Amino acid sequence: MSDSTEATAPVVTIENGRATIRFNRARQHNRIEPNDLAVLRETFERIDADPTIRVVVLTGTGKSFSSGYHIGALVERRPETENEADGGAFERTVDRLEALRVPTIAALNGSVYGGATDLALACDFRIGVDGMRMHMPAARLGIIYYPSGIERYVSRLGIAAAKKLFLTAQPIDTAELLRIGYLDEAVPSEELPVRVDALAAVLAASAPLAVAGLKRAINETAAGQLDRAALNADRAKCGASEDHAEALNAWREKRAPVFRGR
Q1: Cα 4 to Cα 27: distance, rounded to the nearest angstrom
Q2: pLDDT digit string, tens, across residues 235-254
Q3: Beta-ladder partners of 133
Q4: Are 103 and 203 in contact (CB under 8 A)?
Q5: Over 60: is that where the pLDDT of 147 sits?
Q6: 210 vs 221: CA distance, rounded Å
């Protein structure tokens, strides 16, 4: 899509077991408006309710992934509209993305700023493009980030990287994004769709019940909140599943397994 495309709420397409969510305000660097958050949460509910969806890709239109939450909305925000007990709508949206049962890929088609850095961090994989930058300006805006966002930064990137990004509020380049583990890989922009398609195909071909259980257990472990009872229940469910039997049959027959999520 070109930068002249009409700005809209995130565009959602579902095809061949893959849901793609595309931020679509290219002229505003795909900033996220307050109403977009409800669209995203509704989309996440739809994805979790559809067993045919095996993978989610989050990306942007134009040359930026996203400039984050609309700063103008912060200026206009009133204290009574922000529920401090649950951290607000943006935090709930990012947390819901992280909790999706299916694997998620942030296809970072360009630079990423502000709250959008946490949206990408909540995804399971991040593939970026050469020349992109990332910037977390909270300290320059005079705000302290919400709890789950800080936890994600520290658990995924480490204390040193989190302090550098938050406290200096300085942008970092592609090489540094790779070094600290924010990006899993970076490719030339023209190669991004092919690389994302390849990873999405691998993820979609895995056993859905096992993927969901493993993803949940890994995220809980990273947060220091592993639910061992739930993990054991998931292990028992997978062990008795049709997918596990199919995997064993496929191994014996020397063919690729076909999983049905049951």
Answers
A1: 8
A2: 999 999 999 999 999 999 99
A3: 173
A4: yes
A5: yes
A6: 16
Taken in order of first residue, the domains within the chain and their CATH numbers are 8-204 (3.90.226.10), 208-253 (no CATH)
Structure tokens at 232: 């054991």
Name the token pair of 125: 């994989």
Q: Residue 77: pLDDT above 70?
A: no
Terminal Cα-to-Cα distance of the chain (whole angstroms): 38
Other beta carbons within 10 angstroms of residue 204's beta carbon come to 18
CA pair distance 207, 186, nearest whole angstrom: 27
Residue 25, both tokens: 């305000």
